[in-house]
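explain this:

___
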Amino acid sequence: MTPTQDRPRQRRRRPWRALLAVAALALTAAACTGPTATSPNATAAPSETAKGVSGKHNGYRFAVVTHGTAGDMFWNVVKNGAVQAGKDLKDKVSYYSDGDPGAQSKLIDNAVAQHVDGLVVSMANPPALKASIQRAVQAGIPVVTINSGEEQSAAYGAIGHVGQNESVAGEAAGKRFAQAGKHKLLCVIHEAGNVGQNQRCDGAAKGFGGTTKRLQVDISNPTDTRARIQGALQADPSIDAVLTLNSQVAALAVKAKAGANAKAAIATFDLNADVVNEIKGGQLLFAVDQQQYEQGYLPIVMLSLYLNNGNTVGGGKPVLTGPAFVDKSNVNTVGQYVDRGTR
């Protein structure tokens, strides 16, 4: 899983007015909030080595490097967004992923060695990726971070961040459970070391206001994950709310609830076809949707605008793609988009 050797980088100026039109449409639904630091590159024009100033190359070459695992439906939607943006802008987008931070760092280094025109990187483990991202920035390659690592994005030199503020999203989910009259929440973390998942649970505890417990599971072992959730519900029947942080774990939680003969309400982060069906069937109360298609699509637009016209988006602050909520009131509409791979 390493970027393949491509021909030497050549660039040409492309009509920036068309890109601006695409960006205006793509960014309509996105809102902004601020990180704690301002990137030194946030308002600066790209260097000469990063401009599309000459050559006959048919578009830019962008690499998207995420921490997702192969076959994960969430990351497939991110990939779909990035690839579609590349097609719309006539840029070449290559997508790579690895759940191991060390391996992800090597993928970033490989992309830099291939002299890509821009990088999109998710940062579930920011310290592990810091050196690689900064090497890209030092090489004159603009970087947009996505999904995780909002707080570190600007400090590492990225020109922007696209994603969901996990603390804000978690707090909103906790409030929804509280409004439903729940009193004891179980927050299920499925990926050790992922800073975003801890932020979700921290936010949920803040918004919920009642008692919150955490359960660590391993998403790579579905049987054990289901057993651990079921065991937690059996051991503490007072748990009346379960929040999972992944759509695949949500399906396991539904089975665990049945196995424990529990009455807890279940909700989840993220969507897939199973989540849509379980909301329709009343097995899930709601889903927190971070609209990850935008996390793939928007950074490609942002990089193209930066290279063609020196534009940045957000004024040094991240572009938020969520939280949006899916429940019985809108699941039929959103479900159509899930089926086609864009939600």
User: Anything to note?
Assistant: DSSP finds twelve helices and 13 strands in the chain. The longest strand covers residues 61-66. Residues 61 and 117 are 5 Å apart (CA to CA).
